[in-house]
Amino acid sequence: MCAAHDVAVPARTTVVRAPGKLYIAGEYAVVEAGYPAVLIAVDRYVQVRVSPARDTGHITSDQYASLSLEWHRRDNDMVIEPDQTPFDFVLAAIRVVEEAAVGLGASLELYDLDITSELDDDAGRKFGLGSSAAVTVATVRALCEHYRLDLTRMEQLKLALIASIEVQRSGSGGDVAASMFGGWIVYRAFDREWVRAERVARSLTEMLAIDWPGLEVSRIVPPDRLRLVVGWTGSPASTARLVSGVQARKGQRSVHYSRFLAESRSCVTELAEALGRDDGVGIAAGIRRNRELLRGLGEHSGITIETPKLQRLIETAEACGGAAKTSGAGGGDCGIVLIDRDADIDGMLAAWERADIRPLNLRVHQPEGTVE
Ligand code: PMV
Ligand code: MG
Fold first, then answer.
1. What confidence tens digit (pLDDT) does each residue in 37-74 have?
2. Same domain (yes/no): 159, 250
3. CB 329 less than 6 A from any atom of ligand 1
4. CATH number (domain holding residue 309)
5. 231 and 206 in one domain?
6. Does one domain contain both 141 and 258?
7. Is the pTM of this model over 0.85?
8. Ligand 1 within 6 A of 27 CB?
9. Which of 110, 144, 153, 362 is the most exposed place for a label (fewest CB within 10 A)?
10. Quick one: 326 and 247 in the same domain?
11. What does the pLDDT look like over 170-202, one tens digit per residue?
């Protein structure tokens, strides 16, 4: 083997998987730079496999079984046909990592990239577990490994965030951070406008080296006694639509919106502290306060965050001694319950069944790598 080729083709295949996510607290406020949210990574994954290719690379996904994207390399450009593809996040991630690879002196290669998803199938997409973020993270991590770029998780997070803002107009990046770091995290949002402006002025390697205003990730180790139960309402919700609804109205209600932001910040900070010091009462209070803040935001913005079914999910959880709220943008998708591991949740589950709310059998995906 290893006959002389023009381009050295490494014989190895890289396989990486990235977990989905769920919001615990801090939604909507976290789209503003510097505001915190608590998230977890969940044990449902997107897997990316990268293997060397000769003349034509293929990008395939089990989500689009009939569609294989062909691409060619023209120097450092990817040439893709047809123009419009459903692989936006993957392609953005490839471009960003390759730009970094060139900046770091690696020579670019042709490869097949295959995506398998437990999040992006019909069911996963409906649950709202963050498939776009996970596919972005899995692609970034797989290619960093493929090109042997020795980047920290924080640097890889920055690459994934840059890739995602190239595709998505809104979004805090909390989902990307949860997928990158695993476990429980407190995420503080970066300033999208600052990144967009600096991205034009600086090289990508510089972007990785400098601190980004607002951006911060830290880990939380929650109490052992704490149990997380996730309920699915059966109706998918569009995060982009809900977030743009709130953003469009925030100016008209700026006093309320500023108060919401300040209160969300203090609530999430206190919740994170309570989680870290094993304070069950503080944890429950934090979840309940955040629920009220989100309900108030919904009312003031004319957006239904807590749908009647989510309300039912929450009230039945509260009746069993849990603390519960909507997760993520709401409007459907999932609600979360934090409850003592010894609490009897049979009554809650029976009420959920009557209300057609499905408990999701999810666990927290364990933390990976270090947070600087
Ligand atoms: O609905 P989800 O799980 O995609 O979460 C959205 C959370 C928001 O704070 C409303 C938006 C964001 O990008 O952080
Ligand atoms: Mg959602």
1. 999 999 999 999 999 999 899 998 877 665 666 676 76
2. no
3. yes
4. 3.30.70.890
5. no
6. no
7. yes
8. yes
9. 110
10. yes
11. 789 999 999 999 999 999 999 999 999 999 999
